[in-house]
Structures are given as C-alpha cells and as structure tokens.
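Quality-control log, excerpt.
Job 1 of 2 completed; input and output follow.
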Amino acid sequence: MLTWYMAMTLPPICAKYTQTKFKLIAMKTKHRFTLLVAAFSTLLSSSAFALPHLSIDLDSGRVLSSKQAFDAWHPASLTKLMTAYVVFKAIDAGEITTGSPVKISRNASRQPPSRIGFGRGSVITFDNALKLLIIKSANDISVAIAESLSGSTRAFANRMNREAARLGMKGSRFVNPHGLHDKRQVTTAHDIALLVRAIHKEYPQYAYMFKAPSLMAPQRLKSGNNRQKMHFSYNLLLERFRGGDGFKTGFVCASGYNFVGAATQGGRRIAAVVFGRDGQTSRAVDAAKLITEGFQLSLSQGTPISNLKANGAVRSLPTNMRSKVCTQEARAKRYDPGAGQAVIKSAWMQKRRITQKPLRVALGGASGPTSSAIEPDRVSRVTKPVFRPIQNVTATPNTTANDNTPIRGTIVASDTSVPIPRFRP
C-alpha cells in the first residue's frame, strides 16, 4: 500500500525508481515498515527530488505540472533563447534584416566551445547566424550576433534584460549572450516557460530552425580549402519523440543538464522545462515523460502561468551542480554520446527516425543594412578637421626684416588671438 502511495505522490521522474527501491528493501528485511519510512525520508531529502521542472500548454498558457519552478538556476545555453528572441524583435522592428551582416570579431573567435570556428573577419547573415545559434549552440556566433546588433555584449545584455522585464521574467538576469558560466546569470523554470511561449506565439516563422535536427556548415581545412561538415542539435527529442519540434538545451557544470523540449500532437503543443539533470539522456527522457503526461490532460486542466504560485520554499541562490555532474566518477557513469549517434532506450522515447534533411549555412551573402547601433570603426572615430578662416598677421611698425619676428602672412589656426612664437635659431 505504501509503495502504491509513493508512486502516486512522488514526481513522475521518481516513481519507477521508488517502486523498485521499496520492493528490494521489503524483500531483504523483516522490519519492512520501519525501513520503508527511512527510505522515504532519505529520498525526500535528496537534491534530486527538488530539481526544477515545468510543463506548459504553449497555446493556452496553462501550466500542467511544476516543481520548484521559481528557484534560481543557471541557464547555461538556454540563454540563447533570449539571444534569439532579441534578434527576432530587432528584425521585426526593422533595425536589421535576415540578410544583414554578422561579423566574427577577435573577441567572438576566441570563445570556448561549443563553437563553429569561423575565422576572424568572416561575415555571415543574421539568418545563418540564427541557425548556428539555435542548432549548433555556437558560443562564438552568440558573441558575433551581440556585437553586430548592439555594438558590444554588454549593450546586448542590457537589451536582453529589458525584454526579460517586459515578459515578466522577474527571476532572470543576463550578463552575456551565450550562457557560459557567470554566477550573476540566473533564471527560473517559470521564466524560461514565459520566454518559450513568447517565441511560440510571436515568431512562428522561425519554428523550422528549432525543429531542425542538424545543419551543414563550411569548415576550413589546414590546406586552406573548405568542406561541409554536419552538426547535430543537442535536442534529443527531435526525431526520437512523436511530434518533437523544439526548443533548446544547455549545460555548464554549475547548472547541470538543462533542457526545454516541445512536441505537437493533435494540434496541441506542449513544452517541458527541466533543470539540473545528470546527462543528455536523462534530461531528454524526463522532458518526454512530462510532455506525454501533459497530453493526457484535458485542455481545461492546469493553472494559467500568470496565476502560478510557488509550491514550496523558493531558493534565491542557484544550486551548483558541479560536484554532481562534473566529477570523474559522474562522467564515467553517464551515457553521453554524440547527438547524431545517441541510442536512448526508454519507454518514453523511440528509435531515431530521420525526418528531414539538414539545413545549410554559408559564409558571406550579407546584403542587408548594418545595425545603426554598431560603434563606428577606428578611422571614422577620428575627429574631422573643421575649416577655419585664414588670417593675415601684419608686423608692427617697429619691426624690421632683419629682426627675429615671424614672417608676414603667418596662417593662424584659430579665430582667437594667440601669442605668435618667436623665431629660435
């Protein structure tokens, strides 16, 4: 009876583990009840029990399941959802076009992986930059986008925070466009759900980028030639879950494995946000389970996200997952294959089935206007000379041609009178 109760009350992620664990304990001891209660207490106190999640119907905005949805968490590359959203807004406002240039600066080219590796000075379009940002999750492209739209990453982060405030993302703060770890950069599952819903509702024309499982991009060889290289999305729901069609993954040691996955079935689209999982596989499976359970609910069930309240104590400081996911022991235990080769054995997912050809990205081709916010280059920052009228200086009567006074007709570079320097041998 207790086993059944636990399976019904614990979050979905823990149910199967709970039933198995309790059965093993019951088989190995005569004092079943005492040890079951002890096991239950231990499970409740574990950090895994409190990992944040939230599932939402993206059309109605109803939250279907949530846990610790207002806890502060490091977003990692989920940050790039806001980077993309800012670019979408800029294109919509006419500041730039999809064909406007994104230039790879020295700063951008020096960003750590994940990156695409285009050389310094390379130029691509915003359209291609968005594909690399969303599918490849390229950090160098994130910086190039920020600099090409706002002039600097700091100015771009200010735009990110303004959009976050407008959307009601009260628990979020951005200081960079890529999500590489900075202790000041935080978000919540609730806020990410707001952002994903805004992208879904406002910019359906970019849905194909989030849905694409792969892309082809040029790679420069040591010989100087270019070849096309395949890059896979880290979103393992794509091509492995019925109706999987977005959104984004994120990982740094401090955050653990974050994920926002979405799927459409029967005309209804549901997304799941999960934070702090211990691997690519577990975050995908957890999201798949939450989405599946969401589709089993009626359209009227759930709480409007505007009315969602915290269902427990809220952590104002993000949990650092480094000791749980970035130790040598943790790396040895988890299954972390390349996204294109991953084989996930789970009742919640299916064998990969290739559904579409990769998108293609090319260098060059930028024909749109440059953002007006970009700082002028060094040459244009030089002060241009201003025309000043020529004044003739006449020698005083008591001077002679042989004295040391300046020659007549000296050009004075100012309208005001200035002492005229005397000749010095």
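Job 2 of 2 completed; input and output follow.
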Amino acid sequence: MLNSPNPPESAALYPRYLELTMPAGALDALMKPTLQLLAQRRDKDSSPLRIGIVLFAGDHGVARAHSVSAYPAEVTPQMVANIVAGGAAISQLAQRRGAQLWVCDVGVAAGFDELLSLSPGKGIRYRRANLHQTFPGGGHEYGAADISSRPALSAEAHAHCWKTGGEVVDEFLAQNKCDVLILGEMGIGNTTAASALASLVLDKNVDKCVGRGTGIDDAALLIKKKVVAAAVERARHALAENVVNDGERAHALLREVGGAELSAIAGAAWRAAEKGCFVLLDGLIVTAAVTPHAISNATFAQWLMASHQSAELVHEHLLNALGLNPLLKLGLRLGEGSGAALAAGLLQDADTLLRTMATFSSARVSSRSAADEI
C-alpha cells in the first residue's frame, strides 16, 4: 500500500534548521529535500543520512540489430563485471558515499557466465535473476527483443523483472538502514528504449525524444531516430488494440518498448515507495522507467526525487512531467546511477550542516527577528 511521505517539517532536525546561522531559506534547495528524507525515519535514530544504491543490468536486442550505440552489445556484461569488481564510476562513488552497492543482472545476454563469475569488490553484492536463465528457450538470449519489430518483453518476462526489482529492494532494506535509495542501470541500447518510452508517455515527436546516448555520430543518430519511430508506431497500434486502464497501461508501455532493467527499476521504485523509502532518480533511463507509473499514480510520484538533468534533452521533459526539480544540471550522460551518487553527496553535506552548524543562540549572533525589533 502506498502512503504519502511525511513533510519536511516533521523531521527531528527541523526546529534546529530554523535556528541555523544563515538567512531563512538560503540553502533550501538542499535542506528541504534532506529534511524530507529524514522525516521518514520511524525511530529516533540520529545517525547521518544513509544512502543505498541498487543497479539493474540488461541487454537490448535493438542494439544488436541496429547501430544505435557507440559501443557493441558485449560492453553490457563487460561493464557489469567492471562495476561488480569495483572499477566503475558508480563503484567508486558508492565507496565515497559510504553506501552499499547491489548489482542485479535481470537481462544480460547469454554466453558470459565465465566473465560474470567473479568476486565482488568491497561493499558490493552481485545477484543474477536473468531472463534467459529463468525462461530458457523463451527468446531472451539477448535480453529484451528488438523493439522496432516486436515487444521488448513478454508479459511473463516483464512480471518477473518487476517482481525481482521489488524483491531486491525488500532484501536490501532488510539488511541496510537507508533514507534514500539510488537506482541505477547498465544496458547498451537502453537510451533507445527510454527514448521510445518517453515519446509514448509524453506524446512527443520522436525527434524531440532521441539524443546521442553514449555519444553516437550523426549517421547513427539518424538510424536511432528511425528505429525509435518504428518502435513507437508499432507500440501505439498494440496499445490501441488492447485498451487498458492507466495502471495497466503503465505496465504495457514497459512491456512494449522497455527492457529487463527498466521493468526491474520500476518495480524496485514502487516497492521502495511502499516501504516508505525515497528514490533518488538518476538520468534518462531511470526516469523514463518510473514515469508511466508516476503519471498514473500521484502518491507514488511523491516518493521520487530528481538528482540531475542529463545531456539527453527529453530528460528535462520527463522531469517537468513529474514536477521534479533536479539538484544538478551538468550535462552528464554516464548512467550507472553515477549522477545520483554525485548529487547524494550534496544531500550528505546538507545533513552535516543540519547537525553541526551553530544556531543563532549558540553563536550569539543576532537573528533576523531580533534585528526587526530594533
């Protein structure tokens, strides 16, 4: 069951925040979201802000069938191995944040078992709930299908990924105290899927929804736009033939043009909200994955925070549709949850200030109210 989050004013540190030695509202862009995170604590725990990171990985048939990425499809398992070993940006940022990093393979292509049989780095946990292992012979050897010609996932595959996302969150929160959960992803070709999803959800022209992703050239960008246009057209017909309510439409959109990791992210975010834990969204892929359900359920949307606005132009449109203001605008386009992990550092700094700054009375500094009385 989804409940609305507690307001920032209910945080134990809120009265102290009002007395800090700074002009009223001077740091509210950071203080208010931090206070809201702290307001969800159900006990009197006074420990610093606690961050968790969960990353879902999956491959995309569209990347093998078309030249939509600057990198070959085999980079997905290679980067998963790098992340788990501790060598990727998100791996290092997790250590900086003091956060546990859990990596879950829900749809990486078959044939990489040896590569992915490795010992996780410090503070990292690796789990496999792979589609091609769960549904052998089900056509998921390369992860999600080529969305330009068929649905990304079967109903069963989508349900599996959604459920897996929720289960990972349940297990993570049972083992780690967490005030905000960062969701990340890894999947070559997933900006193509996210662009198609954004076009359908926002009802925007494909040209306004497709960007350069990993840094493709003009020729590849043209191919990518044609592929996304074909996927959107196919999905529109499929959705029109199967009239569903808003909640079911959200699931249908993910099945049609999403991917294993996008379905898992959506399921994970939904479960985190049910458990009373805020989700700090990363870039385009993570935001696109949660948008269909956030648009159809206003309570769910209340549990989402935007970490940054990426270089992909349609990301701004998605954030606007959700009514979210990003903490950072740096033109990032790495993914993995890295932008959210960078923004989380600002929230940790705000948490430190809430706890350690002097108050007007303790520092013997005249407050604004005192000045008004003179």
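Post-run check on job 2. Residues 254 and 311 are 23 Å apart (CA to CA).
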